[in-house]
Write a structure and sequence with these properties.
heterodimer, A: alpha/beta, 5-stranded mixed β-sheet, 3 helices, about 35% strand, B: alpha+beta
């Protein structure tokens, strides 16, 4: 698992690649919350994610809650079929803000 | 369908093992003609069960083994995962209410949603815990 952060026009994009599980999710959580704290729009690009477990889902739930509480913009984009499968199982596919 | 086939693997209880566990389960299921849909769900359930051991056994300090047994007989899959951590109270192992949007507590809910039967038991006299999960494969609409 690896990630890259790019910043452009007030938008911070976190691009994720590989499998997100408990080994990586603590680092991911810190990275997402750090970007949200910047106050800029944060877009999580999941195009390269082949697997997501519940600890990874928890990172997004926490980011979603943080963004709502602190009036920040947070979106997920490029969601693969396997990741959407997990969101649907967790009944979160209609909860997370998703950009096409 | 296949005759009875069996996989038994032992892993260290740490987060690095999760990738190997998923890979081994995927390989076992693929070799035995379980389709990608069922395989994807089963990998999620097994990963969550192992993750719970790594994350919660002895407050995350359990560094022993995780033993994964998988049996496939015709269209029925049986997964038995054993640890040697302190015994946990099975009554406390409940998934959270899925309508509450919270960061944690999702793993057990996913396991129970995916598998047909889930049972928690202790091993011997405080010698570990065992989760047994079964799933009938080839019935995708039931999830």
């Amino acid at each position: 698992m690896k990630y890259e952060i790019s910043k452009d026009n007030g938008q911070h994009v976190i691009s994720l690649h590989g499998e997100i599980d408990l080994h990586f999710s603590p680092e991911l959580r810190k990275a997402i919350l750090s970007e949200l704290e910047s106050g800029q729009l944060v877009l999580i690009d999941l195009d390269g994610v082949s697997y997501l477990d519940s600890s990874g889902v928890a990172c997004f739930v926490e980011a979603y809650q943080y963004s709502k509480k602190n009036k920040r913009e947070f979106y997920l984009t490029n969601i693969s079929e396997s990741v959407m499968q997990v969101f649907k199982l967790a009944r979160l596919d209609k909860v997370f803000p998703i950009k096409p | 369908m296949v005759d009875k086939v069996f996989m038994r693997k032992i892993y260290r209880s740490n987060t690095l093992s999760l990738k190997s566990i998923r890979s081994d389960i995927k390989s076992f299921l693929s070799t035995n003609q379980v389709d990608d849909v069922d395989s994807g769900y089963i990998i999620i359930a097994v990963n969550e069960a192992c993750m719970n051991i790594i994350q919660h056994a002895n407050d995350g300090k359990y560094g022993g083994d995780i033993i994964v047994n998988v049996t496939l007989l015709d269209d029925k899959l049986l997964v038995k995962i054993t640890d040697q951590a302190d015994t946990v109270d099975a009554n406390k192992l409940k998934g959270r209410d899925i309508t509450n949007i919270e960061p944690g507590g999702l793993g057990i809910y996913l396991i129970k949603d995916i598998m047909d039967m889930v049972d928690y038991d202790s091993v011997g006299n405080n010698q570990g815990n065992c989760i047994t999960m079964t799933k009938k494969i080839g019935f995708h609409d039931e999830i």
